[in-house]
Design brief:
Layout lengths: L19 E6 L17 E5 L15 E7 L8 H11 L7 E7 H4 L14 H11 L3 E7 L14 H5 L4 E4 L2 E4 L4 H18 L5 E5 L17 H18 L5 E4 L6 H12 L2 E7 L7 H8 L7 E5 L8 H5 L6 H14 L4 E5 L1 H10 L1 H10 L4 E12 L4 E9 L16 E8 L6 E7 L12 E7 L7 E11 L5 E4 L12 E8 L5 E2 L2 E7 L2 E6 L4 E7 L4 E6 L4 E8 L6 E7 L2 E5 L7 E6 L19 E4 L22 E2 L8 E20 L2 H4 L1 E10 L4 E9 L10 E22 L7 E2 L1 E5 L24 E2 L5 E5 L7 E6 L2 E8 L4 E11 L6 E6 L6 E5 L5 E8 L6 E8 L4 E14 L12
Parallel strand pairs: 3-4, 3-12, 4-5, 5-8, 8-9, 9-10, 10-11, 13-20
Antiparallel strand pairs: 1-16, 2-13, 6-7, 13-14, 14-17, 15-16, 15-18, 18-19, 18-20, 21-29, 22-23, 23-28, 24-27, 24-29, 25-26, 25-28, 30-32, 31-36, 32-35, 32-37, 33-34, 33-35, 38-41, 39-40, 40-47, 41-46, 42-45, 42-47, 43-44, 43-46
Helix pairs in contact: 1-3, 1-11, 5-6, 10-12
Length: 896
C-alpha cells in the first residue's frame, strides 16, 4: 500500500513562508456598496497579540487523559466513577477518557456491543465523558494473565466458535493467527469504527490491542512468518475501520519488533504510543533516542509507566524513586523530552494523587505538553484598496508537541486561514487559506507566513480581520483553538479592523490553453488580483499556481445566475476544470499588488507541460497531473492490474530543448516502472526513438526516495513519450510520484554553480537524496526571495564542471534550526574525502570553503547536508574561480 501523504512536508522548518494558496468563498449579509475609486495602496498595521500561556486548551490529538481500566475486577458504576473523578479535580484538567478494556467487557455476546446499549454502564460512562467535554480513546485487549485479575479477556463465545487457545497464568488466551479469531476481532474493530470513527468525539484508538495488557507483547508462540501476517492484518483492519481517526501503536521492543511498527507508521500513518514514561527500567536512553529519531515526522502519544500509585507503590519504588512526587517529576520530564502530545492522570486514585501531590506538574503539562499555536506578530491591513495587500504573520508554538495534521487519517485538513468577518454576524465573508502547514509550527522557531489578501465579491465597508486554523472536513470552520487570550473553541480570533474600499475590476488579458476537453489554463502577465471569472457550466473547479504546485481554490462550484464565480486570488496562472469551461471563460480583476510573486519554474503559457497516459487512474487517487505538479507528495497511481505496455506522454505548448528525464518514486521496488522506452516528437513533427528497453534498477521497498535518471543527446521536443514495458506491481498497481524533464540551459557552464540562491523552487540542477526532507521556502531568505530547508539524513548536491589545477572558493549562507543542530556544506571530488564547513549558528552565517582541483579533475560535487535529527536553512551559494595553480597543489580531500 502506498503512503499517499507527506509526513515530512516541512519540519523544524517552517520557519519561513509560503505564498497565498486558496480562497474559500463564504457568504453572509454585507454592508451596502459604496461608489468611487479608492487608491491602490493599502494601509498596514503591525500588532503583537497576547498569548494565553496558562489556560486549559482542548485541541485535537493532545491533552491530559483519564483512565478506565479493566484490570482489577469489574468496572465501577458510571455514577461512582464520575463522582470520584470530579471530586479529584481531574475532570477539569483532562481532555479525554481512555477506555482500556477487555474484549469481553465491551462485546460479551456475539453481535452485542455494550456501548450501543443506552442503559448499560459502559454507555453511561461514555456519556459522562461527553457531558464533561472529553473525547474518547480506546484500547480493546484480547490477552489475560499476569496481574490482570480479569483473567480471560477474550469472551467465551469466541472460543466456542472454534478459535484455538493457549494458557498463561491460568488465563485462556486466543491464537491471534487463527483465521476465525481474526474474523471475529475484525467485526469488533469494524463496529467500533462505525460508532467512533469521528475525530470530533474520539481522541485516538490504539490500533493493535494484542499481547499482554494490549501492548503487543508475550505472543511468543508466533513464528516470524505468523507475526508478519498477524501484524499486517490487525494494523490494516484498524486503518480500514478508522480512516478519519488518529491510530496509535505500542512502540518499542515487543513481540512484533520495531521494523514492523515502522512499516505501520510509514504505510498506514500510525503514530507512536509509548506507555513507559518515567520508568528507568523500560524506557532507556536508547529507547528515547529511537523515539526522538522519528520526531517531528511522527507525533508521540505518551503515557505514564505506573498506575495504582498507592496499592502498587513497589513498582515505582523498584526504579529507585524516593517518593511518588519524584516519580511524577521524572514522568513529566520524559513527556517533555519526547515531545509528547498526551499524558495520563490515570485512574481515580492516581488522579487524586496527581492533583494533591503535584498540581504544579499537571499545570506544567497543560502549558507545555502538546501544542499551543498562536500568531505572535501580524502585519494586517487597516484599509484595503482594489489592489489588496500582503499580509505577514509570524506563528509560534508554546508546546513541545505538534498538531498531527499530515497523518493520512487527517490528510492535512487543518489549514491556517485569514478572513474578513461581518461585524454584525461574526461570519466570514472572505477567507484566504495559507500554504504553511500548522502541523509543523514547532517550539523554538517561529514560522513566517505571507498571503495575498485581495477581497473580491465583498462590498466596501468595515470588517473584523480574523485568523483561525480551520478544518477543511468541517466546512472550513475553525477547528483548533488558538493560544490567544479571549480565544474560544470553534471561533475566529479577531486581530483588528479592516476597511475595504471600492473595487474597479475589469477584464484581464490572459493566455488560455486547452489541456483537455474540460480543462483550460489561464496565464497572466505579471500577477494580477483575479476577482472573479465569467464562465458557463456547472461543478467548476479552479486551481491557482503558487510557484511550485497547483493549489485548489474552488471545488465543484456552480456559477451565479449572472455566470460568475467569485475568486479573489493574486496569481500568475489559473487552471479551470469542468462544465463548458474550455469554450467560455474570462477573468476580471485588477493589476498585481506589488508584493513579491513566487517565481514560476517555467514561463507561463509557453513551457508549462501537460501529461496524459493510456493507463487508467486508480479511483479516488491523485490525477495524472500529479506527475508534473512539482511536489513529490502527490503520487499518481494506476488502476489495479494494469496491462503492459502502455504510455505516459508529456507535451509542451511550444517545443523545448531537453536532454534528461528523471523519475522519482518511493517504495520503488514494489510499485515503480522497471523497463521503459522513450521517444520524442521533434519540432518538425517527426518521432525519434532515444532510449529503448531501459531497465530501471530500484533499490528500496520502504519510504526512501529514489530517482532514476535517463540522459540523452539534446533534442528540441514538442512531446516526450514514455512506453512502460514493465513495472513492479506487488500491490496490484504501479505509481509515479514525479517526472522531471530537464533542459541543457538549466545547468551552468564551467566554473558556474547554477541556482545557487534556490530562486528556482524546483531545485534544478540540484538533486536531493531525500525529497521528503527538503522544502523551498519563500521569504526571509539570505538573498533574493527563496531559500531551501533540509533536515534529517538528507543531502542536496550539484555536479559543477571545473578546470583542472585551478583554485576555487565556494561561499554560502546557512543556519541551524535548533540548539545542538548543524548543517554543513562543501565540495567533493570523485574518489576523495569532502572538504566542508559546519554551521551551528541559529541565524544566517556566511562561510567559505577553498580548494584546488586535481590535474585530471573536470567536475566536482557541491553539496549541503544534514544528519540525524538536525535541520538547517541554506542560501546564496556561489563558486568563485581563482588563478591556475601548480600541479602539485592539493585537491579536495587529498593530502599534499
Amino acid at each position: 500500500m502506498i503512503k499517499n501523504h507527506l509526513r515530512n512536508t516541512g519540519v523544524t522548518l517552517l520557519l519561513a513562508a509560503s505564498l497565498t494558496t486558496g480562497i474559500v468563498p463564504t457568504a453572509a449579509s454585507a454592508p451596502p456598496a459604496v461608489t468611487g475609486k479608492a487608491p491602490d495602496v493599502a494601509a498596514m498595521k503591525t500588532i503583537t497579540p497576547t498569548a494565553d500561556q496558562t489556560s486549559l486548551i482542548r485541541n485535537p490529538g493532545m491533552g491530559l487523559g483519564l483512565y478506565l481500566e479493566g484490570f482489577n475486577g469489574p468496572l465501577p458504576s458510571a455514577t461512582d466513577y464520575w463522582s470520584a473523578m470530579d471530586a479529584s479535580g481531574g475532570s477539569n484538567k483532562a481532555s479525554y477518557l481512555y477506555l482500556r478494556l477487555a474484549w469481553d467487557q465491551v462485546n460479551p455476546e456475539e453481535g452485542r456491543f455494550l456501548w450501543r446499549e443506552r442503559d448499560s454502564n459502559l454507555a453511561q460512562i461514555i456519556q459522562g465523558a461527553q457531558q464533561r467535554g472529553l473525547k474518547i480513546a480506546w484500547r480493546v485487549i484480547v490477552q489475560g494473565g499476569d496481574y490482570y485479575d480479569h483473567s480471560q479477556a477474550t469472551p467465551q463465545w469466541v472460543f466456542d466458535s472454534g478459535v484455538g487457545s493457549w494458557m498463561r497464568d491460568a488465563a485462556k488466551n486466543p491464537r491471534v493467527d487463527d483465521p476465525i479469531f481474526q474474523e471475529k476481532y475484525t467485526k469488533l474493530v469494524d463496529s467500533l469504527g462505525e460508532d467512533f470513527d469521528d475525530p470530533a468525539t474520539t481522541m485516538f484508538v490504539d490500533g493493535v490491542g494484542l499481547g499482554l495488557w494490549g501492548e503487543n507483547d508475550h505472543d511468543n508462540y508466533l513464528t516470524e512468518t505468523q507475526r508478519d501476517q498477524v501484524y499486517e492484518w490487525v494494523t490494516a483492519s484498524y486503518a480500514k475501520a478508522f480512516p478519519r481517526t488518529l491510530l496509535g501503536l505500542q512502540y518499542g521492543p515487543n513481540t512484533f519488533g520495531t521494523e514492523r511498527q515502522n512499516r505501520a507508521i510509514n504505510d498506514r500513518g500510525y503514530v507512536i504510543r509509548r506507555d513507559s514514561l518515567g520508568c528507568k527500567t523500560y524506557l532507556s536512553a536508547g529507547d528515547k533516542a529511537d523515539i526522538n529519531s522519528h520526531w517531528p515526522t511522527t507525533p508521540v502519544l505518551g503515557e505514564n509507566c505506573y498506575h495504582s500509585f498507592n496499592t502498587s507503590a513497589g513498582w515505582w519504588q523498584g526504579d529507585s524513586y524516593s517518593s511518588v512526587r519524584e516519580m511524577m517529576a521524572s514522568t513529566m520530564s520524559d513527556a517533555i523530552e519526547l515531545h509528547s502530545n498526551t499524558l495520563d492522570l490515570r485512574q481515580v486514585q492516581d488522579t487524586e494523587i496527581w492533583m494533591k501531590e503535584a498540581p504544579d506538574l499537571v499545570q506544567y503539562f497543560i502549558e507545555n505538553g502538546g501544542y499551543r499555536l498562536y500568531p505572535a506578530k501580524a502585519t494586517i491591513p487597516t484599509h484595503l484598496g482594489p489592489g489588496g495587500a500582503s499580509v505577514q504573520v509570524s506563528w509560534r508554538n508554546l508546546g513541545v508537541g505538534r498538531l498531527p495534521n499530515d497523518v493520512p487519517q487527517w490528510n492535512n485538513k487543518y489549514q491556517v486561514a485569514y478572513a474578513l468577518l461581518d461585524k454584525a454576524t461574526g461570519q466570514p465573508l472572505y477567507t484566504v487559506l495559507s500554504d504553511i502547514d500548522p502541523g509543523y509550527i514547532l517550539k523554538g522557531t517561529d514560522t513566517s507566513d505571507q498571503v495575498t489578501f485581495a477581497p473580491a465579491g465583498v462590498n466596501a465597508g468595515r470588517y473584523d480581520f480574523a485568523v483561525a486554523i480551520v478544518d477543511r472536513d468541517n466546512g472550513f470552520k475553525p477547528g483548533v483553538t488558538l493560544a490567544l487570550n479571549g480565544a474560544t473553541s470553534g471561533s475566529w480570533s479577531v486581530l483588528g479592523t479592516t476597511t475595504v474600499k471600492a473595487s474597479d475590476a475589469h477584464p484581464l488579458d490572459a493566455t488560455i490553453s486547452q489541456v483537455d476537453e474540460s480543462t483550460v489554463t489561464m496565464a497572466f502577465d505579471g500577477k494580477p488580483a483575479v476577482d472573479r471569472l465569467g464562465i458557463s457550466g456547472t461543478r467548476v473547479s479552479v486551481d491557482s499556481w503558487n510557484g511550485t504546485r497547483w493549489v485548489p481554490i474552488l471545488v465543484g462550484a456552480s456559477p451565479s445566475t449572472a455566470g460568475e464565480l467569485q475568486l479573489g486570488v493574486s496569481t500568475t496562472q489559473l487552471r479551470v476544470r469542468g462544465g463548458n469551461v474550455a469554450k467560455t471563460v474570462t477573468a476580471f480583476g485588477t493589476p498585481g499588488i506589488g508584493s513579491a510573486p513566487a517565481p514560476a519554474p517555467t514561463a507561463p503559457g509557453t513551457t508549462i507541460p501537460t501529461v496524459t497516459t493510456s493507463f487508467d487512474t486508480l479511483a479516488g487517487g491523485s490525477p495524472v497531473s500529479a506527475m508534473l505538479d512539482g511536489s513529490d507528495a502527490n503520487t499518481w497511481e494506476s488502476a489495479l492490474n494494469p496491462s503492459f505496455p502502455g504510455t505516459i506522454s508529456v507535451s509542451w505548448p511550444k517545443p523545448k530543448s531537453i536532454n534528461s528525464l528523471s523519475i522519482r518514486n518511493w517504495y520503488a521496488r514494489e510499485q515503480a516502472m522497471t523497463n521503459i522506452t522513450v521517444d520524442v516528437r521533434e519540432a518538425n513533427g517527426e518521432w525519434r526513438n532515444i532510449v529503448t528497453d531501459r531497465a530501471l534498477d530500484w533499490k528500496y521497498s520502504d519510504g526512501t526516495w529514489e530517482q532514476q535518471d535517463v540522459t540523452f543527446d539534446e533534442v528540441v521536443a514538442a512531446e516526450l513519450r514514455i512506453t512502460v514495458n514493465a513495472a513492479a506491481t506487488s500491490w496490484g498497481k504501479f505509481v509515479v510520484s514525479e517526472l522531471v524533464i530537464s533542459a541543457p540551459g538549466e545547468h551552468g557552464p564551467t566554473g558556474v554553480l547554477a541556482n545557487g540562491g534556490f530562486e528556482n523552487p524546483y531545485l534544478a540542477p540540484w538533486t536531493t537524496t531525500n525529497a521528503r526532507q527538503t522544502k523551498a521556502i519563500f521569504g526571509e531568505a539570505r538573498t533574493g526571495q527563496w531559500h531551501q530547508l533540509i533536515w534529517g539524513e538528507t543531502k542536496l548536491q550539484q555536479v559543477v564542471q571545473v578546470e583542472p589545477n585551478t583554485s576555487y572558493t565556494l561561499s554560502g549562507s546557512a543556519m541551524a534550526l535548533g540548539d545542538g543542530q548543524q548543517v554543513s556544506f562543501g565540495v567533493q571530488e570523485s574518489g576523495a574525502e569532502p572538504v566542508a564547513v559546519a554551521v551551528v549558528d541559529r541565524q544566517w552565517a556566511n562561510k567559505t570553503v577553498s580548494f584546488v582541483t586535481g590535474p585530471q579533475t573536470t567536475a566536482v560535487t557541491v553539496f549541503a547536508a544534514t544528519a540525524g535529527s538536525s535541520a538547517g536553512a541554506i542560501d546564496s551559494f556561489e563558486l568563485v574561480t581563482h588563478a591556475k595553480s601548480p600541479a602539485d597543489r592539493p585537491s579536495p580531500g587529498k593530502k599534499p
